[in-house]
């Protein structure tokens, strides 16, 4: 059983989909990552920041999942980061309605002492300089540093982002971001260029079309489970990252073969996340449900052609 | 070794992609289906029609692949069906520049006597009444009737199309067509509705995002192999159908498990088709290349998680 350190936002989200809308509910990258990782026997901690408007109930929820929250700073008289978005009819694109940084604007992450030797460091989507600070606070080199980022940082803080990328083992981005970062349309070529920036492993997320894991000229593909209904895609990418890193921290094995398994674990958990609003589905997800769906993933992709 | 009967167009194509353009070259659904099926040890025949402007060289090419072309009618003073299209930059959409039906306008298919007991009947994309005529000429019921069609027939000849659909075991359509035919956005729900129209198996093709095989509440997924370059998508869907049916005719096994293998065989061959213009890549494709890439497909999707 290894240790997983998660850096990322803990936040309020307000979401509108074709199927309904929410008031301010629990959100944030680190929240989704932590809830997904909690499905595995790893020791996890979140480093983040909230205001004192953030309900104790939400903090207790994370704590009760076994997540160490001593690294979540609570700012007195501060307001918690808030994001609001509205999905279009196909659920594949969304418009951001509001982004209020609030306490996130001055976030100086502090890694708890007993997680400075974490096996896996998961850097959720944040300002690259915040991500860099977490890397620098580690006392022993993690077995695996995993980076999530987005086009916003490519547009606005590219040189800092490139510095973080050069220090990571795995980068997870979506197909459009991979194309932007590499200036290549073919995802195979994009992954090659991103390899040269530092990461040994490149994960390209394609939403309902699955995720690709590139390594050393090889590629592995995890489909998204075809679902009758996708209700709310919010947090699916973070849930994927949480399943991916939680599994790797539990197994303490960062071989390519085990990263393949980790991609499936991530895709499996993400398939639950989208079934309800926000974190709702992840809050009460049982190991039995997870395992049953892992079996469906096997059924979905495994075949038995005798090669001639 | 079983028999495969292929109904479909044999035609001229003129193609423009971001990478170049062709004059009139060999094209047509039955051509792509036949060339793909020729990779398998099945006895195949094509039923189609061309004008006497169609080069003997093209007919010899099919014959030399072992395909029975006695069912290809050659119309004296007739002109061969011609299609011309231009792909947009992402290669995922195309505009039709010309469709000249010519001899196809009066096509009355005639199934050769020794293929009236074919194990697999592959109905390439054509007017539903032509497809229906081929079904009606069979003397013994095929183990499997596979139907390819497109939105054009849904828009213009829906009641005839529904009649054909009711008589087929497998339908292969793309995601947009599945949504149109079923009036459901979710592909899982779309497949359920299409099952009720007749086909026990529903294959939904998603281009570079692979293909789904639905059966009896279960689903199997074949990814498209991530390629460095996609040069020309023309014929990829037909090549998929040819690999699918050629493999099934060779193995004479139409169980769900073997249909899973067939979907992989189809996806594998389609990954070659798109590497060059038209049928060029399929003309000289060796068994060794096919097998090597089948191995890549295994690498691409197989994983080994120990279920708890």
Automatic annotation (TrEMBL), chains A, B:
PROSITE patterns named among the record's database cross-references: PFKB_KINASES_2
MF GO annotations: kinase activity
Pfam families (alphabetical): PfkB
Keyword Transferase: yes
Full protein name: Sugar kinase
Domain Carbohydrate kinase PfkB: from-to ranges: 22-281
An annotated GO cellular component: cytosol
Native source organism of the sequence: Muriicola soli
Keywords from the named record: Kinase, Transferase
């Amino acid at each position: 059983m290894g240790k997983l350190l998660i850096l990322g936002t803990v936040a309020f989200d307000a979401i509108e989909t074709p199927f309904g809308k929410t008031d301010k509910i629990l959100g944030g990258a680190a929240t989704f990552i932590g809830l997904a990782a909690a499905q595995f026997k790893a020791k996890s901690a979140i480093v983040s920041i909230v205001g004192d408007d953030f309900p104790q109930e939400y903090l207790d929820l994370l704590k009760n999942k076994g997540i160490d929250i001593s690294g979540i700073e609570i700012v007195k008289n501060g307001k918690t980061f808030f994001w609001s978005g509205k999905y279009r009819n196909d659920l594949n694109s969304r418009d951001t309605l509001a982004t209020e940084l609030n306490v996130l604007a001055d976030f100086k992450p502090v890694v708890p002492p007993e997680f400075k030797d974490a096996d896996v460091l998961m850097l959720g989507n944040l300002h690259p300089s915040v991500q860099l600070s977490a890397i620098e606070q580690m006392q022993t080199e993690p077995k695996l540093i995993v980076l999530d980022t987005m086009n916003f940082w490519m547009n606005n803080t590219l040189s800092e982002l490139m510095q973080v990328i050069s220090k990571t083992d795995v980068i997870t981005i979506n197909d459009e971001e991979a194309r932007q970062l590499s200036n290549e349309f073919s995802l195979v070529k994009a992954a090659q260029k991103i390899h040269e920036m530092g990461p040994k492993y490149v994960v390209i997320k394609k939403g309902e079309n699955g995720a690709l894991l590139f390594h050393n000229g090889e590629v592995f593909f995890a489909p998204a489970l075809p679902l009758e209904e996708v209700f709310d895609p919010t947090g699916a990418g973070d849930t994927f990252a949480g399943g991916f890193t939680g599994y790797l921290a539990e197994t303490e094995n960062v071989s390519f073969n085990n990263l393949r398994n980790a991609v499936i674990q991530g895709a499996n958990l993400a398939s639950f996340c989208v079934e309800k609003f926000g974190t709702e589905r992840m809050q009460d997800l049982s190991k039995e449900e997870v395992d049953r769906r892992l079996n469906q993933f096997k059924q979905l992709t495994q075949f038995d052609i005798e090669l001639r």
